[in-house]
Write a structure and sequence with these properties.
With 264 residues, the protein is an alpha/beta fold. The protein is 30% helix and 19% strand. The chain contains seven helices and twelve strands. The protein has an eight-stranded mixed sheet. A two-stranded parallel sheet has the order 3-4. Helix 6 links the parallel strand 8 and strand 9. Helix 1 runs parallel beside helix 2 and helix 2 runs parallel beside helix 3. The longest helix has 15 residues. It is globular, with a radius of gyration of 17 Å. The protein starts with 11 loop residues before the first strand and ends with a strand. The mean pLDDT is 90.
Length: 264
């Protein structure tokens, strides 16, 4: 079963072809209204409709499981919690992870921006995931405000420290995912390299926004965009594949941490 372009909200979507994780079935625990603690300038959902950091039950676990059953036998490499915003804002995150694993017996990934890692309940829930990928696009407050546009004032150092605390306890595979829109200066590169050395993730993933951003919220932004867009989009600035590769090689040389990067 493959979901098609539609305005109807379905909490399970895909499968999606991921350059990082293979064939992925998506779970959206947030709902039709995009809700996130960030409003990133490159977000594939378009502008975030509800910019908050409050946790709530947005989609019931029962609804998610009923839709998951329609995709059996789950012929995918991984099941990914992402969708319409920040998945850890779902108050039923732990239950979703437990029941999805029980139902599908597939590895589970959570994509998160790490802003909720101040919450012990979120940290505990995320330990149930086989993989966690944390988005970090900034090493300075100016970058954070300009690229991620958080819903509230955040201390970047606190975000890094909370990730470190989670990393020290987490037994699964942790990745740091970083979107680079324009070339970084030498100081920012050095700072990033020092910080990932400190975190010791299993993998670093460098990305650049090769897909256009919808002007308004589009539900199909959860999956793979096609060349045809029946709605207005904004083409985003990208750094060259060569510069992305050079930075990846520089990170690996200085950290010995595997680095993957997206090429066109």
């Amino acid at each position: 079963m493959i979901t098609k372009l539609t305005d109807e909200f379905i909490p399970v979507y895909g499968p999606v072809k991921s350059w990082r994780y293979g064939r992925s079935l998506g779970i959206d625990p947030i709902g039709k209204i995009s809700t996130c603690s960030f409003n990133c300038v490159y977000c594939q959902l378009g502008e975030i409709e509800q910019k908050i950091s409050d946790r709530s039950v947005y989609v019931s676990t029962t609804e998610i499981l009923l839709n998951l059953q329609k995709f059996a036998p789950w012929d995918v490499d991984i099941i990914t919690l992402s969708g319409s915003g920040e998945p850890t804002l779902a108050l039923n995150l732990k239950e979703i992870l437990q029941e999805t694993k029980k139902l599908t017996n597939k590895p589970i990934l959570v994509l998160t921006n790490g802003t909720t890692l101040t919450n012990p309940e979120v940290k505990l829930a995320l330990t149930l995931a086989d993989r966690v990928s944390i988005k970090i696009d900034a090493v300075t407050s100016k970058q954070l405000q300009g690229i991620n546009r958080p819903a509230e004032i955040l201390n970047l150092s606190d975000i890094w420290e909370n990730i470190k605390d989670f990393r020290d306890k987490y037994q699964g595979k942790l990745a740091i995912q970083t979107m680079i829109l324009s070339p970084w200066n030498t100081q920012n590169k050095v700072e990033y390299i020092n910080l990932v050395k400190y975190l010791k993730p299993d993998e670093i993933q460098l990305n650049t926004p090769t897909r256009p951003k919808p002007i308004k919220r589009q539900l199909d932004g959860r999956g793979n965009h096609t060349e045809y867009h029946p709605y207005a989009v904004q083409k985003l600035k990208c750094i060259s594949p060569e510069k992305l590769q050079n930075f990846a090689e520089e990170i690996y040389k200085n950290t010995n941490i595997p680095v993957r990067y997206k090429q066109k």
